[in-house]
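Record format v2
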Amino acid sequence: MSVTDALPPAPDVGGPQQALLAVKGLSKHFAVGGRLFRTGGVVRAVDDVSFSVDKGEVLGIVGESGCGKSTTARLIIGLIAPDAGEITLDGEPVGPALSLRELRRRVQMVFQDSYASLNPRLTIEDTIAFGPKVHGVAVNEARSRAHELLRKVGLDPGHFADRYPHELSGGQRQRINIARALALAPRLVILDEAVSALDKSVEAQVLNLLLDLKAEFGLTYVFISHDLNVVRFISDRVIVMYLGEVVESGPVETLWADARHPYTRALLAAMPSLDPDQRTQEAPIAGDPPNPIDPPSGCRFHTRCPYAENVCSSTVPKLMSTGNDRHAAACHMVDPASGHSKATAQAIRRRAQSATDRPPDAEAAHA
Amino acid sequence: MTAVADDLVRIAVVDKARGYWTNVGRRLMRDPVSVTCALVLIIIALAAILAPWLGLADPYQGSMIRRLRPIGTPNYPLGTDELGRDMLTRLIYGGRLSLLIGLLPVVLAFVIGTTLGVIAGYVGGLVNQAIMRTIDVFYAFPSVLLAIAISGALGAGITNSLVSLTIVFIPPIVRVAESVTTGVRNLDFVDAARASGAGAMTIMRVHVLGNVLGPIFVYATSLISVCMILAAGLSFLGLGTRPPEPEWGLMLNTLRTAIYINPWVAALPGAMIFMVSICFNLLSDGLRSAMDVRD
């Protein structure tokens, strides 16, 4: 007996070379404060975001509160409709080729609030079996699948199946949420701050569980978090968001070792350190993020950036490759042609470096 | 997967035979207040239904010389009314119409109002506006006036007063249903259900209804007593029950004139209305706690 009997996972279409999820030009603007006969402002929650997730990898998305991480997650799974942009799952664009219903079977989500995301009136078993039943699995089959999944997430079905969410601890509830997400045999699971509300010890257990499940079911994760330590632990690649835009993306170790965007550097510098000699003395960036209703012109970070120059407030920087493999940043200092004083200096240094390593690499930004 | 684990699953599945409502029923049986109220209501309802077979006096047979006898008169344990008819008989027979007229409009309004309110709350947007603004129109009139107006327009008769009372009770139930549904709709588990590909109807049935029925139900049961009193008012105006017919509200109104002569007898129909409505209220309260799985 296997959980995949009644509802097999969607087949792999494009092979390992094709990205599982490709997001292109995704935008979502929310109208706010409109009154009668007067239109209010527009919050650019997600603005022209593009990225891709390879099969079997964990993509971390980091950023401050309100930077559009969760909106991005909800856009991918179709809980809110995008204003612009296109989402492609394993080569099939959502909409024309892939129905929303089928998308939601292949992509599942785990929410941050483990209690609010479980129906208080349903038993654990009914909660997990709900999705498969919706997709036409027989009641008994759905139930035994729920039991099997409970065992997979480390909970004894005999003890937990008939319980209600309020009888469980936060960690147990989040395991239930993971089991519920896996019940539809998805290929991609979006973890939206899935471990942020847990105790540190429980968080570690759940993270390890997530890695085990990923290996067992061949899953791909999009891991959204504000906790950089956790993101570094679990992710293969990371994208950094600021005010609804992607400011930097790259493999996790490259990003940690060689962050190019001042915002990423500030985020990393803001991490609490256990080493007293490394203690953060002053805040790496001052102030709150600007109001997303009326974001700053040019580079959105220029109001808080220590290296801001005239070009930063006038021209929007494009996400471009830093020369390293798959590492890209949206900063004028990365672009030698931007006119930023630090850009030319950095470019010269890099050219000198790459002349010794390998030929200059003019590859377009990986996005 | 081993055979042992297979057996484990099967045993657990069989064990899960009792459902949510069985649990609610069990919790309700453990509450002495609810059990008492349920018993009182069952006795009153059974007596009303079985009235013709209980060997009671004729509820319409009056006697001019035995009018307004006090409680405890031989052969008339609860006295007689202003036309000399046996009060006990009339109270028991009166339960038939009173319970029907108190319950049926509320039940109908509960079904219609919950449906409209949950749809308005879940779908939101234009649908919500359309339903809620229509409901607001009914709010413009005081409920008594509205009931009289509809009853008057439809003509006298029990069926028409049932219809008018149903219409009167739909708007407040829609309001309550809409507000609790709006609260539930924004919770993550509804998003999670949407994310599993379920349609709006399935989500409303499985995830919304169970979480909103409790408060709506308790509110609706509190309307039963109001409904009985409104029905009595309609009867008094000649729009509901007609005079010789025994009905608590109508009896209360006709005995009103005897309140200085024999106040205890005159108060009896009122006591019946009070008893039934308080029992419904306490029972609905008990049911609400029994439905709350967190207790």
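Chain B touches chain A at residues 1, 5-6, 8-13, 15-16, 20, 187-189, 191-199, 202, 206-207, 210-211, 293-294 (CB under 8 Å).
Chain B has one domain: 79-291.
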